[in-house]
Amino acid sequence: MSIVEMKVPTIGESVTEVTLSQWLIDNGSFVKLDDPICEFESDKATLEFPAEASGKLTWVAAEGDDLEIGALVAKIDTSVKAPAGSETPKTEAPAKKETVEAAPQMAAVENGKDSYAAGHPSPAASKILAEANLDAKSVKGTGKDGRITKEDALKAAASTANKTATSKTTATPSATSAEGQTAFSRSSNRKKMSRMRRTIASRLVSAKNETAMLTTFNEVDLSEVMALRKKYQEQFVERYGVKLGFMSIFAKACAKTLIEMPDVNAFIDDKELIYHDYADISFAISTPTGLVVPPIHNCESLHFADIELKLKALAKKAREGSLSLEEMTGGTFTITNGGVFGSMLSTPIINKPQSAILGMHNIIQRPVAVNGEVVIRPMMYLALSYDHRVIDGSTSVTFLKTVKELLEDPYKMFLNI
């Protein structure tokens, strides 16, 4: 008997521990060389772990376990040969299966591919299914090789919710109290925090406790930005294949100002300050498992369309849980947009080791005084949180005021003045 021990590999310099989020191959099944056997959730991304040999797989770690780098995950008995006629690392399903259960595997076969992905949810989909108490086997995957995507999971959860609502309508009335009122619940449940949520919690507390963080505010009239988008949107989409959004305009305004004001673009490293002659802007993206902040490099040199395309690709990967460590690395400044959730005003927390973060908020039609007259304008509050150890108050105020001026006259960015 020859046993190959599968251990957690070195993932990155800053990653010392991972969480085994889910197994992709059944315990005791035959696995082929390089077939992904499980998924690891690190501080920054979700990674697939491929088999180092062919043979019978025996689990050692369980789903949800926190594992240090080098920890034993599984064993592969290479003396076990593949079952006759076996074409896939998954155990064969019983002959009499419901059509819905077999659908993911059927999709893969019909496409001429046998894949471990068939019938398996992405990390985002897995979370949605778990919250809806749905078995992945009951959901048809429309993703690559039959993988269950976030959209598949949302549709299945919505369908289940509708059925539940219908059954409740026709069901026997719930228990009532002596006064005739519907009885209420006192139940609670305990759930382990995901690695990403634990990492976010740790870093937020660290940023709050280890920086001299202050926030300065301003407001911006977005009339010119909205007029610009309205006038050129169709031509922009026709030429570049993507809409001109607010984020690229804000990113360019921040990038231009960061190059002109390097203190806001600097880091503290022990007793030294590290300055950057480029603006790598991180964008806060909300995902089912938490907030991620992947950067777009050299925003000062990119075209508006390039930023929009890169941001769209990063957002898609973030929500699918497929961002790589490289795509999560870097960033000299962060932009977060609470306005998409309806936030009027907030004080964003610095994304360490960066020294500043810009908070965008919702756009409200408000009366403002312009040239002695009261007019209605689309207004947004801006918030700049900054580390006072690196950035002086006057510098932070000037930075935010400069960004405001660029947004109120966006043509300056095109003319570079």
Structure description:
The structure is a single chain. The strands form 5 sheets. Strands 9, 12, 15, 16, 17, 18 and 19 form a 7-stranded mixed beta sheet that branches. A 4-stranded antiparallel beta sheet has the order 1-8-6-3, with no helix packed on it. Strands 5-4-2-7 form a 4-stranded antiparallel beta sheet, with no helix packed on it. It has 417 residues and is α+β, with helices and mostly antiparallel strands. The longest helix has 21 residues, at 150-170. It contains 10 helices and 19 strands. It folds into 3 domains: 1-92, RNA polymerase II/Efflux pump adaptor protein, barrel-sandwich hybrid domain (OB fold (Dihydrolipoamide Acetyltransferase, E2P)); 96-168, Irregular (Dihydrolipoamide Transferase), CATH 4.10.320.10; 214-415, Chloramphenicol acetyltransferase-like domain (Chloramphenicol Acetyltransferase, 2-Layer Sandwich). Mean pLDDT is 83; it is low at 88-116 and 168-174. It starts with a strand and ends with a helix.
SSE blueprint and pairings:
Elements: E1 3-7, E2 17-23, E3 30-31, E4 36-41, E5 46-50, E6 55-59, E7 66-68, E8 72-77, H1 99-110, H2 123-131, H3 150-170, H4 195-210, E9 213-221, H5 223-240, H6 246-260, E10 267-269, E11 272-274, E12 281-283, E13 285-287, E14 290-292, E15 295-296, H7 304-320, H8 325-328, E16 333-337, E17 356-360, E18 364-370, E19 373-387, H9 393-408, H10 411-415
Parallel strand pairs: 12-16, 16-17
Antiparallel strand pairs: 1-8, 2-4, 2-7, 3-6, 4-5, 6-8, 9-19, 10-11, 12-15, 13-14, 17-19, 18-19
